Amino acid sequence: MTAAAAVNNDRTYSRLLGDLALGDPRFVVLTAENRAAIRDLPDRLGDRFIDVGICEQTMIGMAAGFALRGRIPVVHALATFLTLRAFEFIRDDVGIAGFPVKLIGGVPGFLSEANGPTHQAIDDLAVMRAIPGMQIFCPADESDLLAGLPAVLTSPAPTYVRFNASPSRLPHAPFELGHAELLSEGHDLGILAAGLLVPYVKEACDRLRDEGISSRLVNLRMIAPIDEEAIVETATRCHLVVVVEDHLLVGGVYQLVCEVLVRRGLSVPVLPFGLDARWFRPALLPDVLDHEGFSVAKLSERLRRAHRSRAGLRSSEEVVDVIFEPLPLVSNGRSTP
Question: 10 Å Cβ neighbour count for 77?
Fold first, then answer.
């Protein structure tokens, strides 16, 4: 789980996907008129590249048909339309059958930037988690995406990818399905994150470290299957667990973490940094992050306040019983020995 060398930065998603497809004739690439990340693939793949137009439901039906004939379809669409407009087709045609269709959701979460609520995929994890057997990959940046892509594409399970090709800012450990990655060690704050916000959290943790506040930062990478041991280890080692996500709290990583802790019989304070039953304000990404409290500066201040609050709330020997409050502090259940 320790960070290692990053994937070669001269590679891109399109280049790697094309190379994998050229090496395995089972791959078929489809898109619902979303070519931004794969513009070179029509020339490389020929008739194994299909643009269906703005027809996400049709695309999923086609993908299921290809999978039935032994192919591995890799489909592309804006995340909100892929997961919501085509949900019934994904659930029934892909999920129930367990076909290895790979669902690549573009501009998820805060990456939709200036788009309004209709285009904000901040509930995509919730609906994809509801499909039994669906794997979910949330890369932190482009190098994380490339590190996980071969394993994700060759997995026999259907998989949803929260596409994120943001410039790489971190070295990443070798990728394993269902395994998280430890980016920093500490005991004051235990931070669980996945996707776009991971590099911002890492930079905030580095700032706090200079102030004497240590943070254990875990890049979850996969939301399903989730690395339960990484969550449990963080919860038992740290004074406060913080979950950071660009998703609604309902059905997202925060709720998933709480489910794991309750299932394991652990009672620890859990602080969610996410969207609490609301859409985010559209703007360019830096302005979105600043306004919503997820820029490095805002995260640093929020984490600093959380640490100070916990330090004043209890000593390291005290046991906290059930605490159910409005945000920001929530505990997940009864205390255990």
Answer: 25
Q: Identify the structural domains of the chain with CATH numbers, from first to last.
A: 13-162 (3.40.50.970), 181-335 (3.40.50.920)
What is the tens place of the pLDDT at every residue in 17-30? 999 999 999 999 99
Task: Output phi, psi for 264, to 5 deg.
Answer: -90, 0
- For 48, how many CA atoms within 13 A lie in the half-sphere containing its CB? 19
Q: Answer for the pair 193, 169: CB distance below 8 angstroms, yes or no.
A: no
Residues 162, 139 contacting (CB under 8 angstroms): yes
pTM: 0.89
Residue 210 to residue 179: CA distance in whole angstroms: 29
Strand order in the sheet with 269-275: 181-184, 215-219, 189-193, 240-248, 269-275, 330-331
Q: Coil, strand or helix: which one is 12?
A: coil
Q: Please check whether residue 161 is in contact with residue 119, taking contact to mean a CB–CB distance below 8 angstroms.
A: no
* CA angle at 268 for the pair 262 and 271, rounded to the nearest 5°: 100
List beta partners, residue 51.
31
Nearest alpha carbon to residue 151 among 7, 44, 5, 3: 7
Cα 292 to Cα 31, 238, 260, 289, 320: the distances in Å are: 31, 26, 27, 5, 30
Q: Which residues of 78-91 are buried (b: 16+ CB within 10 A; e: fewer)?
A: bbbbbbbbbbebbb
Under the banding of pLDDT at 50, 70 and 90, the label for residue 3 is very low
* pLDDT reported for residue 10: 66
